[in-house]
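Protocol step 4 of 5: obtain the predicted structure for the target chain.
Materials: sequence only (see below). No template structures provided, no constraints applied. The aim of this step is simply to have a reference model before the mutagenesis design in step 5. Sequence pasted as it appears in the construct record:
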Amino acid sequence: MSKEFAAMGATGNRAKRARQRKTGRLGALAVVAVGLLAASGAGAQQTRQQRQMENTDRDLRQQLDTQQRDQQLQFRLNQMRDQQLRQQQFPSLPPPVVAPSAPRR
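Step 4 output (structure tokens):
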């Protein structure tokens, strides 16, 4: 009986060790899975931050482009207004009238 009991004990120990290895593997897998989820969450956070930064950069570029166009337009309008004011203040003179000269004798 002691041989059978010893054999069952050895089998029981092997089964126990097999369960421990399985549990250890599952635990390791769980740790890896949690790490991957955390990394993907951080990656998603980083991606979201990158999108926000890119959107902000795009908006700033658009604002600068609009500001430059507005300044260019204002500059042209000022030039035209100044030209018009100069023409009103100093109207162009009509061409001189040259009287026909008397024929020479």
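Step 4 remarks: The first helix runs from residue 2 to 89. The helical segments are 2-89.
Proceed to step 5.
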